[in-house]
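REVIEWER CHECKLIST
Item 1: Sequence provided? yes
Item 2: Single chain? yes
Item 3: Sequence as submitted:
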Amino acid sequence: MIRRLLVTACAALMTAAPVLAIDAEKAFEDPVLQARYEDIIEEVRCLKCQNQSIKDSNAFLASDLRREIRRLLEEGKTDTEIYDFLVERYGDFALYRPRLSGKTLVLWVAPAILLLGGAFLIARVVRRRMALPIDDEPLQE
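Item 4: Structure as written out by the authors:
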């Protein structure tokens, strides 16, 4: 009896999973177009949640952006044109990987500068420690 109840509960949970899907829109008939759509919505940041892509967000704004991207794909726009539209409308913050420009140069260069600075500091500390004398003799009382 308990086994039958567990099987029924598992079956109910498995059939309920599609109801919880965030993007409830019908998939594109063309698998290439659907793959492009999936790639684009993974790269666009939810402007309300800020730490989720619009693919993972259930916010109204994310839903609206998914519909807009779907419309642009149906119109035959390229990925670059869609990203240009989003940046023009919402700014560079809308993309998880902002384009290299004068405004975003710090985002691209800062990690390299920080890594080089850290390596320089470590090398300097190691060199100073190597120059210190070594006390091998035990203390005599």
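Item 5: Key structural point noted by reviewer: The first helix runs from residue 2 to 16.
Item 6: Recommendation: ____
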